[in-house]
Design brief:
Blueprint (H helix, E strand, L loop, with lengths): L2 H9 L1 H6 L14 E18 L5 E16 L2 E16 L4 E10 L7 E3 L5 E12 L5 E12 L4 E11 L2 E22 L2 E2 L7 E14 L3
Antiparallel strand pairs: 1-2, 1-11, 2-3, 3-4, 4-6, 5-6, 6-7, 7-9, 8-9, 9-10, 9-11
Amino acid sequence: MNVVIKGLAVLTFGAVSALAPCSAAGAAVERSVTTLGLQGPLVDAEFSATDPTGCVETDVFVAANSGTEQDHPGTAAVGVASVNIYQYDACTDTTLLQAVGLRDSFGAGEFTVSKRLDRASLNSTINVTDIDTGNAFDVTVSVDWTGSGDTIRDHSNTNEVYPGCHVINRWKGSGRAANASGIISVGTTNFTPDTSSDAEIGFVVDGFEIMGCA
């Protein structure tokens, strides 16, 4: 089961971005040490549907996480939700829509996950951009998750060395398979009329020690 791996990509987005400046030039400067901690619940779901003509195929991926980020000595609340919508007409070999968007904060009650990881919900609006046209528009997301499998716990320790940069990562997580259903829509068009093809609910505790990265 890959709940922790999928969710970790969302939860640690900021930490991974922080590593981007690492280069050989970093070896020439004084080595600094940054400690970063992230923890919180996460969900994701994949949906697939084909219209009555058998031509138009729609694939949707939605993910969200919330929790706390600890960048010593401070602590801050974090929240991220993302959606990816791909719609393709197989009869004409035409991409109809390829839209992606991300929201980096939640209002009260927009994202909830039970402590037992058996229920979750995301009720939010995410602004997305059509990659082909550049048009931006709001997508309404109202999706519920229900745990359907046993809770699985996992952990990992990694030690990565780059030119002038050393990153130690320790994380542990719990996750379970789930069923997700609801509406991901623009106006009256619902892109998720069927139950999810794959969905997960999890919780991750992640700690980084970053040494020498610019």
